[in-house]
C-alpha cells in the first residue's frame, strides 16, 4: 500500500493556494513546499501572513511567497493572476481550500445577509479564482477544488453551506465538460479532518497532511484528466493516493535545468565569483553530470546562463535543497529576483 507520506517531486512548479492559511490549507502548503514547488499563498493582511510563516516554522522556505491581496472578487483575483504572471512567469497549479462555515438557521429562517455571506460570497470567491487562473494554467498543471462532505449530505441548520459546496462540485463538472480535456480539474471531498486546531476525534479521520499529499499527487499525475475524489477516511485517502501515484509519469532519466541571472550594475564579477565558489560543491554531488555558466558571446556585462544536468529528477531535487541557503546571497547580486529553473527531460 502506498503511504500518504511518500514523496512526490514537483520541483520548478508554481502553485497558488488561495485559502492556504487555513487549517486544511496549511497541510496543502506544507506538502507542495516539501515536493519542491514554489507556493504562492494570498492573504488579506500582513499580520496574518506573518503569523502563518511562524506556524509553518522551518517549512517556510524561500519558495513560500506570501502575498497580501484580496482575491475574493473578480477584479481582485484577476489582479492576483496578473501579478503572479509577472513575478513567477506563469502558474502551473491551483489548489483552492477556500471555505468557511455557517450554521444556526433553517432555510426559511435566513435573511439576505445570511444568503450573501454563506452562499453568494463563498461561491463568488471560488468563481473569481477559477476564471482568473484556469485560462493561465500550464497544460501539465491541475486545478483542484477542496470541498466538504456537506456537498453530498445535507446538514440541517447549515443548508446554505451544503448548497454552496454542491455548487462547487457541479462547477468542476461544467469546467471539465467545457475544457474538453484541455485542463485537468479535480475536487477533493473531505469528511472531518485532523488539523493543528482539531487534533482529536476519530483516528480514522484524514489529516491535513494527507489532503495535501493527495493534492500534490493529483498535480503530478499527468495521465489523469480530472476526478472527484472522496477523502472521508484513512482508507479512502490511501486508496486515492495509490491510484494517483500509479498514474504519475515514470522516471525518464537525466534532467537538464537552465536558469538566467541578470547581475546588478557593477556586480557581475561578484556574481561570477559566488557561482565559481559553488561549482566544486555542485559537481561533487551525487548524480551531477554537468554544471556550467555561460554568457552571450562578446557580451561582457550581460546576463549569465546557468546549465545543470543531473542523472535523475530525484538527484536534482536533492541538489536544490542543498543549495537553498545560497539563494539570498545570489539574490543580493541580481537586478531581478531569481526565478525557478526551467527543467528539461528526454523525449527521445
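-> sequence recovered:
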Amino acid at each position: 500500500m502506498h503511504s500518504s507520506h511518500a514523496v512526490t517531486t514537483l520541483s520548478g512548479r508554481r502553485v497558488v493556494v488561495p485559502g492556504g492559511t487555513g487549517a486544511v490549507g496549511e497541510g496543502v502548503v506544507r506538502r507542495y513546499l516539501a515536493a519542491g514547488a514554489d507556493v504562492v499563498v494570498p492573504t488579506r493582511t500582513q499580520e496574518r501572513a506573518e503569523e502563518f510563516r511562524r506556524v509553518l516554522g522551518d517549512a517556510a522556505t524561500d519558495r513560500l511567497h506570501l502575498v497580501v491581496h484580496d482575491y475574493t472578487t473578480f477584479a481582485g483575483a484577476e489582479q492576483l493572476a496578473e501579478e503572479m504572471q509577472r513575478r513567477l512567469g506563469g502558474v502551473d497549479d491551483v489548489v483552492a481550500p477556500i471555505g468557511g462555515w455557517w450554521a444556526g438557521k433553517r432555510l426559511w429562517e435566513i435573511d439576505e445577509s445570511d444568503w450573501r455571506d454563506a452562499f453568494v460570497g463563498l461561491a463568488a470567491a471560488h468563481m473569481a479564482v477559477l476564471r482568473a487562473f484556469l485560462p493561465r494554467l500550464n497544460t501539465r498543471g491541475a486545478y483542484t477544488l477542496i470541498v466538504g462532505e456537506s456537498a453530498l449530505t445535507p446538514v440541517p441548520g447549515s443548508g446554505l453551506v451544503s448548497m454552496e459546496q454542491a455548487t462547487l462540485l457541479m462547477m468542476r463538472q461544467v469546467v471539465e465538460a467545457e475544457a474538453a480535456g484541455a485542463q485537468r480539474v479535480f475536487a477533493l471531498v473531505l469528511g472531518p479532518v485532523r488539523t493543528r486546531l482539531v487534533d482529536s476525534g476519530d483516528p480514522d479521520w484524514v489529516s491535513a497532511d494527507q489532503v495535501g499529499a493527495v493534492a500534490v499527487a493529483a498535480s503530478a499525475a499527468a495521465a489523469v484528466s480530472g476526478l472527484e475524489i472522496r477523502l472521508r477516511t484513512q482508507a479512502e485517502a490511501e486508496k486515492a493516493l495509490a491510484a494517483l501515484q500509479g498514474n504519475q509519469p515514470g522516471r525518464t532519466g537525466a534532467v537538464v535545468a537552465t536558469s538566467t541571472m541578470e547581475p546588478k550594475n557593477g556586480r557581475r564579477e561578484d556574481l561570477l565569483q559566488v557561482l565559481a565558489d559553488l561549482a566544486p560543491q555542485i559537481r561533487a554531488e551525487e548524480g551531477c553530470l554537468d554544471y556550467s555558466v555561460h554568457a552571450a558571446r562578446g557580451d561582457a556585462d550581460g546576463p549569465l546562463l546557468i546549465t545543470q544536468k543531473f542523472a535523475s529528477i530525484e538527484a536534482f531535487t536533492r541538489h536544490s535543497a542543498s543549495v537553498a541557503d545560497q539563494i539570498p546571497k545570489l539574490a543580493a547580486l541580481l537586478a531581478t529576483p531569481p526565478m525557478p529553473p526551467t527543467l528539461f527531460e528526454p523525449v527521445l
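The first helix runs from residue 23 to 34.
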